[in-house]
Design a protein that fits this description.
Length: 356
Amino acid sequence: MDETNLLMRVDRLTTNFHTYAGVVHAVDDMTLTIPKDSVVGIVGESGSGKSVTMMSVMRLIPSPPGRIEGGHVWFDGAALGMPDRMEKDGPNKGMVDLLSLPADAMMKVRGRHIGMIFQDPMVSLNPVLTIGLQMTESMVAHGLATNEEAWKRAVDMLALVGIPNPEERMRDYPHQYSGGMRQRVMIAMALSCSPELVIADEPTTSLDVTVQAQILELMKELKAKLKSSIIIISHDLSIVAGIANKVVVMYAGRILEEADVYDLYEKPGHPYTMGLMKSVPRLDAENRERLVPIEGSPPDLLAPPVGCKFAPRCKYAMNICREQEPPLVTVGEGHRARCFLHHPTAPAVPGFVKVG
Ligand code: SF4
């Protein structure tokens, strides 16, 4: 990819939780690139490591028991305005490693350069502060505006996300908003400091289906207007399909597949992705297809299986799958998959191109 267009590169990130029962390998050697002005979807079942990856990027992993034990999170140094912390040479020239920033410098990154939209706005918003106070706090704390300017900007942001009578609603408390309206407030808050990157962690999960569609539509409109990149995390492939340019499929703390959104839907290259697609309804399907759940459960991350982490649930599993971990191989332009069925000597299975 064009390196001048790179906003963030998560490079071999490893995050573990040290519990009394043992070490939980929540994120294992994760590498991910986020271009400027893009929407990247991260999909996977609960416990796949998608949220832990993003909490690691924000350095919000509770410690103990969590610990980031390897890797880097490179972010565009020019956007951060930290020229003295930029890499001078090499593949990360011009980038700043967020994991090596002092705590006070990292606080300036959160909210200002990376905004976050959480799953449940009722839990994320402070119930005893007005929406106006919560909306303006971040802008004032980052020195972007005076109280008066922040108030005006917050009113504009509420109007932008479709809150009627925004000036009056600034004086209301979170419980006076509906669930969908609270999520609109969370989006307005995340965007209020014009961050280069917004991380939306299951932003529609706590909402009913019609409100979900409105929120996704709103995020698409705002993306076009405000030019932030977005990472959207979801367990639902169909939600990501409607908004993302690129999709990353995670399982047991690893990337199993990564591709342009059209490529992934047209030519999925991993049995797990194929399983996810068969388990959600497709609006473009010509016939009514039966939905098929993926049998079994995700592995216990305290003692993950040797070899391919998906092998216990995979109908194509071969002997090698239970002995060795498959590498992530390139199976098309910008398309990578972690499956031995792409190996030239593997049995021919429709949909799996041979590489290498
Ligand atoms: Fe299935 Fe083997 Fe591919 Fe893993 S590597 S997904 S077990 S075929």
